[in-house]
């Protein structure tokens, strides 16, 4: 059983996926953690985001391990936990360029498809590309202002600056962020986190729920 939750940046995908997974008693998987980990390593190594060859060599030379825990995902490189550095502003600014590289996307897809079912998978193209035959698909959206206010509150940043960055991020991610034709679209703007989780659970097929 696979449930996919896609959506635009800062639409609440990780929090919703975690809540749905806990309700179902299964892990949740965040593709974004792998893209962010690849971006962090590229930044640390001074690699250009437009050249996938050295980055893939780095990723395959010292493989990453995605750990889908009930309370959240973690990414490891050997004994090093990369997770604390994955949501910095510099990673936010660079992750779109890395995620657009077809070679990096193929690497992430390969890592995700190797994970044992069942799970809830969240990201940009889980329902369209990675798991097109998922049992249930959802797509989360909200206005840039709503998403900016949420993220600014979480990180203590200026909402206007965050909103401008999200609008640009939406533009860069447009090709990877389209909902699957058979996905249920949920506007998270007027809903609480619990409300979104409840909407997803209520829409699950009987055999999945």
From TrEMBL:
Keywords recorded for this protein, A-Z: ATP-binding, Cytoplasm, Kinase, Nucleotide-binding, Transferase
Broad class of the protein's primary localization: cytoplasm
Residues covered by the Cytidylate kinase domain: 3-203
GO molecular function annotation: kinase activity
InterPro entries per record: Cytidylate_kin (IPR003136), Cytidylate_kinase_dom (IPR011994), P-loop_NTPase (IPR027417)
Catalytic activity annotation: dCMP + ATP = dCDP + ADP; CMP + ATP = CDP + ADP
Root EC class: transferase
The organism's place on the tree of life at top rank: Bacteria
Location of this chain's protein in the cell: Cytoplasm
EC number of the protein: 2.7.4.25
SUPFAM superfamilies: P-loop containing nucleoside triphosphate hydrolases
Residue positions binding ATP: 7-15
Pfam families found in the cross-reference section: Cytidylate_kin
Family: Belongs to the cytidylate kinase family. Type 1 subfamily.
Protein name: Cytidylate kinase
Native source species: Deinococcus aetherius
Gene (name only): cmk
